[in-house]
Amino acid sequence: MESISFETTDKRKASQLEVLEENSDINREQFTEEDFAVMMGNLSLLKNTEQLKNNPEKYLERSRDTVDQIKKYFQSKGAEFNENIMDLYKNYADLREPFIVRREDPLNIVSLVSGKDLELTFDPEVVGERGDKYVNSALWPHGAVNKTTGLANAFLEGRGAAGPIVMVMGVKQNQNSMEVVVPEGSMLDVGDLHRQSVRILSGKISKEDLTFVVLRIPKDFINSEDLTDIEKSNPNLKQVFRGFRFD
Prior knowledge:
Layout: H1 6-29, H2 33-46, H3 50-54, H4 56-76, E1 80-82, H5 85-91, E2 99-104, H6 106-114, E3 118-119, H7 124-127, E4 137-140, H8 149-157, E5 166-171, E6 178-181, E7 198-205, E8 210-218, H9 229-233, E9 239-245
């Protein structure tokens, strides 16, 4: 019987790794400036939800195409894709210093991934007479009762969306460019939702601060071939979550 040396095996593995890296580089180069412009245009068009009423088939097609574009673009920027969102959650479950999680306009998150800093602003229509700042983010994982509620807070506290596409980003706390304030009344719960983790975030977020993005999309607005078997077989499932890790 022919013997196989460990040296030969190691060389073969190294060669296979080089091929994978080459393919990865090719995939990164496939997302062109034109592709980026189309994706940003689609995100803007999806905000016009009247099109869902006027031309639902076209709107659904654009939504599904845009989700595919986002996945491809994030991966071209080095993101690790998590089809099972629990894989992303578990990776950060035991952190000592929590992330800031914030629901943000998908256009802004995509721009952040491209390298453009995100300057945080406060909508005067939301402020009213309560001051110039309001709750716009949360800490996660964080909280004595349930460490997972920060993400739920982030989805609820924010309003940014591109039609059916909703994104929450997780960023590292950066004292040099961000201010994180505990709001008054943050210990008050709303129904079953604990609000100990909500925060007022101001300042600037850079690409280097970005750690992950969670994408939420209605089940009907994603291509069926991109659904898992479990998602396909669950008639009660309304929303699908996907994760992208940038760390």
